[in-house]
Design brief:
With about 230 residues, the protein is α/β, with parallel strands linked by helices. It has helices spanning about 20-35, 55-65, 90, 105-110, 115-125, 165-175, 195-200, 215-225, and strands at about 5-10, 40-45, 70, 95-100, 130-135, 145-150, 180-185, 205. The model has no long low-confidence stretch (mean pLDDT about 95). Bound molecules: 2-phosphoglycolic acid.
Length: about 230
């Protein structure tokens, strides 16, 4: 394993009922208890829907798992009269990270600037770190984002991952413009994660589909920890 921290950010997207989420966590805990992994150099983050945050927090404490929680989006407003929104303050006790600007938010919910910068401002106020998704190296990274998730749209959910070499070049280009850490997202799984761990400019991965089953997420972490 390399010297610096490698991030593994599981994004459940809009999946799982409350009982499915707790079953996932219990299965993951049982895999972990059978065979704990070497995770000193890993930061493992799970980003479920808001409705799962309290249940998962309790179970993570109960089973003493090395998992942190994140959210997949956040309100671009502070707390107040904004029906349906979840503000950064509301989740500040539960999560350390927030994914902002995912291509699915841009495509299906027409999210764009200046809302991303507003979201990042409120996240920073409560100490939640932003993982800002960029679909290519030309995109502007708003100030205040700590991590950038490079996620080429054609690689998301398609089983066709960007090669570690290409992803590494894009990560290097992003780092030249902005001083951030860069993680890669798009069809990452236990079979291909080693290539990203080995790439010098890539600081982590953002698996969607591979995080949905406890076993596949555990296998991916196992592979990363052995690389
Ligand atoms: P995927 O999703 O792993 O299912 O391709 C990745 C992403 O949304 O960044």
């Amino acid at each position: 394993m390399r010297n610096k921290t490698f991030y593994i950010v599981g994004n459940w997207k809009s999946n799982k009922t409350v009982s499915e989420a707790s079953d996932w966590l219990k299965e993951f805990a049982s895999l972990w208890q059978q065979k704990p992994l070497e995770v000193e150099k890993l930061e493992i983050i799970l980003c479920p829907a808001f409705i799962h945050l309290t249940t998962l927090t309790e179970l993570i404490i109960q089973f003493q798992l090395p998992l942190k929680l994140g959210v997949q989006t956040i309100s671009s407003f502070d707390s107040g009269a904004y029906t349906g929104e979840v503000s950064a303050v509301m989740v500040a006790d539960l999560v350390r990270y927030a994914i902002i600007g995912h291509s699915e938010r841009r495509k299906h919910f027409r999210e764009l600037e200046p809302y991303f910068s507003e979201k990042i401002k409120y996240l920073n106020q409560v100490g939640i770190k932003t993982i800002y998704c960029a679909q290519d190296e030309t995109m502007q990274i708003p100030p205040g984002a700590e991590l950038v998730g490079y996620e080429p749209v054609w690689a998301i959910g398609t089983g066709k991952a960007e090669t570690p070499e290409n992803a590494d070049q894009v990560a290097a280009a992003i780092k030249q413009k902005t001083r951030v850490q860069v993680i890669y997202g798009g069809s990452v799984n236990a079979e291909n994660v080693a290539g990203y761990v080995a790439a010098p400019n890539i600081d982590g991965v953002l698996p969607g589909g591979s995080s949905l089953k406890a076993q596949t997420f555990y296998d991916l972490i196992a592979k990363a920890s052995q690389t």
